[in-house]
Amino acid sequence: MSHRTPAGQFLDAAIGLLRRLRDEEAGPMAAAGTMIADTVADGGRLFAFGAGHSSLAAQDLVYRAGGLALMNLLTVPGVVGVDVRPATLGSALERVEGLAGTVLDSSPLREGDLLVIISLSGRNVMPVEMATRARAKGVKVIGVTSVGYAAETSPRNPSGTFLKDHCDVVLDSGIAVGDAELTWEGVSAPFAPASTVVTSAMLQAVMATAAATLADRGVEPPLLRSGNVDGGHAWNTRVMTEYGDRIFYQH
């Protein structure tokens, strides 16, 4: 594929962003993976949340072959994904004060648990309120965001802060403001977003760290296997039975 084509240019951009993660975010990714391993070993539960398209990376961690069985999706009605009608309602709900706190109060989250919050801009009410309220409950928070937004945009929440300001560990995706990697003659708006591929890759790297860290401590990581390989269903049934009190997506 020619690197001069739009497809080639987008893939080059994505590869560059992934290389930056490998070279510049190794420390935060190791810290996040270790924190997840600590939570598993200490009997805590794992949750992930993202609003709109940020939810794609959160969902990628849940009930996933090769992933930790203990990762649960924290859902906010109308916010997780783009299935709400109209789709613009989801964006509006991210800016509603009190919604994140109400969801947390109704969720299983408790002291000793861990919550991954994914928000590209980190500027809206939802991720900031969720992070602050979760930490007040004694929940560890890993924030996945683009730190660059804090330098180029203004906060859109009453605290005047960003998600990055309320986390135990911050993972910086390095995505440019606007999340569009390409420009092209005759196209008036930048296009080709890369946040999903980059954020998902970063979080899978973190989960790999967590699994290996547990194994290095002599703890078998509670991983799921594909149901499409022989023995996969039996393996998953054993894992989900053993850890059933920490898995909420099967109830």
Automatic annotation (TrEMBL):
InterPro entries: RpiR-like_SIS (IPR035472), SIS_dom (IPR001347), SIS_dom_sf (IPR046348), SIS_GmhA/DiaA_subfam (IPR050099). This is SIS domain-containing protein. CDD domains: SIS_RpiR (cd05013). Coiled coil: none annotated. PANTHER family: PHOSPHOHEPTOSE ISOMERASE (PTHR30390:SF7), SEDOHEPTULOSE 7-PHOSPHATE ISOMERASE / DNAA INITIATOR-ASSOCIATING FACTOR FOR REPLICATION INITIATION (PTHR30390). PROSITE patterns: SIS. It comes from the Bacteria. NCBIfam families: PRK02947.1 (NF002805). SUPFAM superfamilies: SIS domain. Residues 36-220 form the SIS domain.
